[in-house]
Amino acid sequence: MTTEPINELYGVTKEDFRDYEALRSSGVMNMFGARSHLGWSRDTFEAVLRHYSEMADTWPDVLEEAAASAPQRRRNAHAALFGKGMP
Predict the structure, then answer these.
(1) Tens-place pLDDT, residues 25-36
(2) Which residue, 1, 32, 20, 23, is CA-closest to 59?
(3) Distance from C-alpha of 53 to C-alpha of 21, rounded to nearest angstrom
(4) 3-state secondary structure string, 32-76?
(5) pLDDT at residue number 69
(6) Is residue 2 situated within a structural domain?
(7) Of 57 and 84, which is predicted with more confidence?
(8) Residues 6 or more apart from 48 whose CB is under 8 A from it?
(9) 62: domain range?
(10) Is residue 1 part of a domain?
(11) Alpha-carbon distances, residue 23 vs 5, 17, 73 (angstroms)
(12) Of 13, 23, 25, 77, which shows the fewest CB atoms inside 10 Å?
């Protein structure tokens, strides 16, 4: 018996969680202001906050991808903010 992959939890898609985790792991901004940056409804944002652990357990590949690409995202964000590379 094959189980179908779970692509949505509590109204949050795996892609939504990937966007949230990419932003969170970059360390670029305080996550309480992330809702407007992500363009999410209050319900979607609160669902991620309330059910983060379950989503992380369901989609561990998202956490691995975010961790692997975080250093490059930090460099890109620094360059965008300050017009130069990180020291």
Answers:
(1) 888 788 888 899
(2) 20
(3) 12
(4) HHHHHHHCCCHHHHHHHHHHHHHHHHHCHHHHHHHHHHHHHHHHH
(5) 86
(6) no
(7) 57
(8) 12, 16, 17, 20, 55
(9) 8-82
(10) no
(11) 24, 10, 9
(12) 13
How far is Cα 72 from Cα 11, in angstroms, rounded to an integer? 30
Q: Which residues pair with 13 in a beta bridge?
A: 8
For the chain, what's the residue count? 87
Q: Which residues contact 38 (CB under 8 A, 6 or more apart)?
A: 16, 19, 20, 23, 45
Is the pLDDT score of 18 beyond 90? yes
d(CA 73, CA 79): 10
Amino acid at 87: P
Residue 60 pLDDT grade (very low, low, confident, very high; cuts 50, 70, 90): very high
Determine, yes or no, domain membership for 76: yes
